[in-house]
Amino acid sequence: MSAVMGASVVLGACSNNNNEASPSPSASASTSASAGASASAAPAELTPQTFTFLNYSNPSWPYDANWKIWSYIKEKTGVTLDIQLPAGNLLEDAISLAIAGGDMPDIMWTQEKRLADKFGQQGALVNILDYVDDMPNFKAWMAKYPAETQNMLSSDGKMYEFPNQGLGESNRRTWMYREDVFKKLNLSTPKTWDELYETLKKLKAEYPESYPLTVRNGLRYFEDFAAGFGVSAPVDAQRASAYLDGATGEWKYAPVQPAYKDMLVYFNKFYKEGLIPKDFLTIDTKMWQDIVSTNRAFVTLDYIGRIDFYNSALRKDNPDFSMNFMAPPAGPSGLQKNAFTAVTEEGFMISSKSKKIKDIVKFIDFFYSDEGHELVSWGKEGDTVSGDSFIEKYTDISDLRKKTGLSTDGTYTWFDFNAHISVSSPELKSAYEQAPQFDNAKTSTPPFTPEEQQVLSTKGDSLNSHRDENFAKFIMGTRSFDTWDKFVEEQKKLGYEEILEIYKKSGRARESGREVSNKRNKQ
């Protein structure tokens, strides 16, 4: 494979013991890794052998062949993983090149289900459901988590990616604020967007060189901001800005809704008064970290784990520094919501060209056993964990991942999130407890046919480019809100109604399939 560079991880002999289950993920304090024992099928015996595996190396915890997680799996399976990493960390490109060139590894890790659906329907990936009888643990897991199982199905009713459960909580995003600065200035956290505006102005007056509200990656987090206005929808390049209206049960297109305009009006005021950076569209992660770290931003929205990320690093020089959870301010309609982002689409895929499919599914089945669940979440008793806590005191989750490999890409399918909570600070634990009460309704993107995916890609690209360009103009004041109706018409001409119809059709097909499945289960 020209797009990847090789690395090897050796995994050794098998075990067939499997006797304990960890608690289901929750935002509570740490619970014992060994609590709640329950029996599940023993892992199938495997002959020691090698599988090639296209994996991902996260820049925040770069892949390490010496991670403890590999030695732990070594004790439980008979597999050597010949790990290949994508050049430049472009996993999607590496998958595409491998499939197009026909030189596919046995196993591939994907970060998006749409890729599994796309390549699976092209015949490049194994339909996992054909091998369920070879995976007793996975079969039991599917019965326990029917929603997660259903959400992983493709539009053809097949499954091309193994579902993941438990670690999605690490992707939760929320508002956060500088609690120490607010206390110093005797400020209360804003309950509404009008209060947010007034609070940001007070912060700006006290710190003239600051941009009190700062986020990274341009418009990406507008999905989260929009939750308070009832129009929360993805704004990334890969997905259309469609959302399921909880009140009507209908799919709607967010960018043309009047409530979205209301939100942009606020950001226009923020921009004109210097309450957000003038270059807000181009602020990357490093720039954002620099601004937040130097008393130039006091309210932000990002992954909830950033609370510990900042506190751990900055309290060394400033003991009073305190980044903490902030409840989302309510929009004009009174909604006090965050977008539901506690999900993950990452998982294993198996090449349809592999000559070792039967053995691969047996290997992956171990990860769905109670023993596998506990092992990949907590590690090994007496080595990383003792009773209900980790032996070493890790600075944060990133530190845990860097040192052990636990919860890194390609090492899990079913995860006990209490392991992460046990490493968190009191502030972050409290945040995990508070955040779910502000969750928007949990929805999943319907599966699409290859033809629908093509339309979503082509028309979606045009719509998204036009949307982003004009949102920026509305915010910066180079386009008047008096032309909003014209903007809506422009989006219509670019095909948002066709995009919306695809979502509606696919959503109806999914519901129909779920009803059939439920009837079969009752029979």
UniProtKB/TrEMBL annotation:
<keyword id="KW-0732">Signal</keyword>
<keyword id="KW-1003">Cell membrane</keyword>
<dbReference type="InterPro" id="IPR050490">
    <property type="entry name" value="Bact_solute-bd_prot1"/>
</dbReference>
<dbReference type="Pfam" id="PF01547">
    <property type="entry name" value="SBP_bac_1"/>
</dbReference>
<feature type="region of interest" description="Disordered">
    <location>
        <begin position="437"/>
        <end position="462"/>
    </location>
</feature>
<keyword id="KW-0449">Lipoprotein</keyword>
<dbReference type="InterPro" id="IPR006059">
    <property type="entry name" value="SBP"/>
</dbReference>
<keyword id="KW-0472">Membrane</keyword>
<feature type="compositionally biased region" description="Polar residues">
    <location>
        <begin position="440"/>
        <end position="462"/>
    </location>
</feature>
<keyword id="KW-0564">Palmitate</keyword>
<protein>
    <submittedName>
        <fullName>Extracellular solute-binding protein</fullName>
    </submittedName>
</protein>
